[in-house]
Design brief:
2 copies of one chain form a homodimer. The first copy, chain A, is built from 7 helices and 13 strands. Chain A has helices at residues 20-28, 36-39, 58-70, 88-99, 119-127, 147-159, 176-189; strands at residues 4-9, 31-35, 49-53, 74-79, 111-114, 128-129, 135-139, 163-167, 194-199, 207-212, 225-229, 235-237, 240-242. Chain A is elongated.
Chain lengths: 248, 248
């Protein structure tokens, strides 16, 4: 078994944010596996097979990648952002755990995670430094967890005065979740708290907008948006939004 | 005023994790400003002036960078990791806010934040995917905030079952803080919870070790360590530590 698997983060969109480590892994790969818009970011070349799949089949995709690596291929699974933040790395380790039941030798596969610029950090950089002090990252998608847990974490984060990054704010399946999250945050943090909506960050469709919680509307976000809620200390200076290092 | 300021993240240490965007900004800079070990990562070349300073003079350093940019220089402030995560970006916006009182034209300076791979994401990648679900980042340095606030945030994060990344776990000024944090976490999360100590990640001195909270000792961390506390769902699969996407 001479194959290997890398789980690589392509960053939020701009090629200038792909690390040399990831570029090198892609240049040496025999197989690239991933959700089709991410696979499309890897150009075709001789010797490379691209395996694009639909969304929400993470475990199947992870198992395919493990099988290819076990067959001796140099496989790269591509994620947007960072593979360890609401992306493919966890799915691969879940699939590995399941695969070990019928294929115990998969435990010897070399697996590396190659970090990338996750959306909240690219969004924060564009806005200024809204995550400049203690912060939380919460995935609002409730495909895999109950809404009660999301609400408990939102409330804990707001009450302890963290800045908060919300990933996947509006899923098609449960569009009302984000409206409830905004209500909860408005109630806990008050209407003056700053909120940045960062859509398609670092791509040609990028749109960054900062408003108060009082003015925030659910339809300002879609599935390509990451939402950054400030802490009580977050403020504006000229065109920038930032959270000072000093606690309020 | 034709100068400009970029606040750039050099990533955790390895050159393969410096983004092309940051490499390009450094190649075009006339001046690099920063804490001396980070400035030392930028090679000398004709036309580049390197301004290295000691730690804990962030505001002076930020003001120097603003003054140089206002004088027409192309200035890059370098941070390790991501400049927006417990690094220089917030300090620059604080310094800008203060500078506007005596130099209102500084409000027109073009300032860009260039994101980088922050330590917790590089550490998580090396360990597996311990931050694969909702997580918090907390700076244990209490130079700028009261310990009571740190404790409140730790408790909130643990009670809401976030994974937790701790930055600057042991400061020379207050070495007992991390011991207190471990006690609080052990009490809230129990002794079986997994903890990863990641020191000098991606450098030749890298050391990654995962133990339980019951076995964790304060001296396992120093100022070059980032500490990742798992959620209740975090577990091991062969040599990897990961948090599944599914809530426990």
């Amino acid at each position: 078994m001479t194959g290997a698997l890398a789980i690589a983060g392509l960053g939020p969109g701009a090629e200038a944010l792909v690390t040399p480590e990831v570029a090198e892994a892609l240049a040496e790969a025999t197989d690239v596996v991933g959700y089709f818009p991410y696979v499309a970011r890897v150009p075709e070349r001789p010797g490379l097979t691209r395996h694009a799949s639909d969304n929400r089949v993470e475990l199947d995709r992870a198992r395919l990648a493990l099988d290819l690596a076990a067959a001796g291929r140099r496989v790269v699974i591509v994620s947007s952002g960072d593979p360890g933040v609401f992306a493919m790395a966890s799915a691969v380790f879940e699939a590995l755990e399941a695969a070990l039941e019928d294929a115990p030798d998969y435990g010897h596969l070399p697996i590396r995670v190659l970090p990338g610029i996750t959306a909240m950090l690219a969004a924060a950089a564009r806005a200024g430094a809204p995550l400049g002090h203690d912060f939380c990252a919460i995935n609002l998608s409730d495909n895999l967890k109950p809404w009660a847990l999301i609400e408990r974490r939102l409330r804990a984060a707001a009450e302890a005065d963290f800045a908060i990054a919300l990933y996947n704010p509006r899923s098609k399946a449960r569009p009302e979740g984000f409206a409830r999250a905004l209500d909860l945050l408005r109630e806990t943090c008050g209407p003056e708290r700053l909120v940045t909506f960062a859509r398609a960050v670092t791509t040609p469709e990028e749109r960054i907008e900062t408003v108060t919680l009082g003015a925030a509307r659910p339809e300002m976000a879609d599935m390509r948006t990451v939402v950054l809620i400030g802490s009580s200390a977050t403020r504006r200076v000229v065109g920038h939004v930032y959270t000072p290092r000093q606690a309020s």
